[in-house]
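User: Hi! I'm working on a homework problem where we have to compare a predicted structure to a textbook description. Could you give me the structure for the chain below?
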Amino acid sequence: MYTLEEKICILLGEKGVVGPKFFQLWEMFDGAEDLVANIGKSKQAQEILGASYSEIVASFKRQQYEKLVDNMCKHEVVAVSYFSNDYPERLRQIDDKPYILFCKGDVSLLDSQCLSVVGTRKISSYGRRVTKDFTAVLCEYFTIVSGLAYGVDSVAHETTLDEHGKTIAVLGGGLLSVYPASNQGLADRIVRSGGLLVTEYGMDATPWAYHFPHRNRLVSALGKGLLVCQAPAKSGTNSTVELALEQGRDVFAVPGEIYDASFWGNNHLIKSVQGVCVTTPRDIVDFYGLDREETTRQTYQMSIEEQAVVNALTDGPLSFDNLVERTGISAGELNFLLANLELRSIIAKLAGNTYRLYGGIE
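Assistant: Happy to help. Predicted structure tokens:
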């Protein structure tokens, strides 16, 4: 099932060997068989692995990776190594790339069109509404990636599942040590619903605090873009944003009240980086040029007057006055019709009292 290269990655991943040390070690040997045969004779390998060297050498001698593979199969865990065809191209592009991913669920989601949704654990009512409203729309177009933490992460995962979308949860510990423990039910639901749990840490690895900032580079790297729903000044979200920018990912932020410290990160980001401000999920859909017709076409029942408005907007955006002229509908009635069409996401209001179609009308 697994090649020797992949089994080496599994064993070293379970032993907690970090990525830079793995790649340094790998370059010392002439392939997998040479590493297994000669790691116990290498002083350079001993220097790289430090205190864990003797235990790792003994594990190779006992071929402990075979037992690890059996245990993974027992728990329906799949390993995706740097040498696997399933390894996502987006992770190959980053500097501090993982050499092993332990996965439970649909591994193919690693190479799907993803968007990362992040934010504070201490979510406000406004932050919850933002996360739900944005995720409910965006999960129609993207696999939603987040970190299974309290707050924004949990709301993003739950909303995606409620909307029958796909989601990836990137863990800061082992698959058998879900953190927080109260989210074990959510983790199980993600897998049952065709989603994916993924981590670079061994199956029983303790979710130490320092794992989570390191984990965040994978949350940002897996997405085409990163949406910040709510972030105070001191938040791991801000470091995730920095990672996303370093990785060349698009970053989006929803504005918050200027007097609310829990949105300092959002508002600071909007001031600091041009073009990150979004006020509707359609801003992100339009940014990527995604057409609702390419995903799920929707059929709407409309009155004769509503259909007249839609027909008028078919050729492009129109001002309110132009719509009155084109449709022959009175200004008062047109205001009412436009409000209803906007609520149903059939049209969008632009600056200057101008309107356009969302698309996907049948």
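For your comparison, note the following. The two ends are 48 Å apart (CA to CA). The first strand starts at residue 78 and ends at 81. Good luck with the assignment!
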